[in-house]
Amino acid sequence: MAGMTRRQVLKSAGVAAAVTTSPWWRVGKSAAQRAKKLVFWHLPNFTPLADELQKQQVYEFAKQAGLKEADVEYAVVAGEQAQQKLAAAIEAGNPPDVTRLYESNVQFYASGGHLLDVNDLVDKMRREPKGIFESALSSVMYKGRAMGVPLAVNPWPVHARLDLLEQAKVEYPKTWDEFIETSKKIQSPPRLFAFGMCLGLVEDTTDNVMNLLWCYGGKMVEADNKTVVMNSPENAAGVKVIEAMFKTHKIIPPGAISWDNSGNNKAYQSKQAAFVMNPTSIYAYLDGNDKDLQKVTGLMPVPAGPKGAINQIDTWAYGAFKKTPYPELAKGLLEYFMQPAHYDKIIQSTGGRWVPVYKRLFDSPFWKEKPAFKHFIKMAETGVPVSYAGSPTPAAGEVLNTHLIPKMIQRVLVDNWEAARALDECHKRIVEVYARYARG
Amino acid sequence: MRSVSGTRRLLRWIGNGLLVVLLVWTLVPFYWMVATSLKKDKEIYGFEATLVPRQPTLANYTRLFAATPFTKYVRNSTIIACSTTILSLVFGCLGAYALARLRFPGRNLIARGLVFTYLVPPALLFIPLFTVISTLRLVDTHQGLILTYLSFSVPFCTWLLMGYFRSVPLELEEAALVDGCTRLGSLVRVILPMSLPALAVVAFFSFTQSWNEFLYANVFVNSVEVRTITTGLTLFVVEDVFFWGPMMGASFLSALPPLVLYLIFQRWVVKGLTLGAVKG
Question: What is the ipTM of this complex?
Answer without folding.
Answer: 0.76
